[in-house]
Design goal:
Blueprint (H helix, E strand, L loop, with lengths): L6 E2 L5 E2 L10 H42 L1
Antiparallel strand pairs: 1-2
């Protein structure tokens, strides 16, 4: 029988470290970090593809206006 104070990870492992704030075991925490990293890079790539040319043109126009 589990205590009410006992914390359990999503994979079923019991978390005994009192300093663990995520509620995930080290293995699941590493997996979550990898997923977040991949998602962030994919979003950055999508943003760069969609808005990159507009940003580059805008920066070029600003530089041209500063040179005059």
């Amino acid at each position: 029988m589990r205590n009410k104070t006992e914390r359990v990870c999503l994979c079923g492992r019991i978390i005994i470290d009192p300093k663990n704030k995520t509620g995930l075991c080290p293995k699941c925490e590493k997996t979550a970090e990898n997923v977040l990293t991949f998602t962030s890079l994919a979003a950055l790539g999508f943003w760069a593809k969609k808005y990159g040319p507009k940003v580059i043109k805008g920066v070029g126009n600003i530089i041209k206006s500063l040179k005059k």
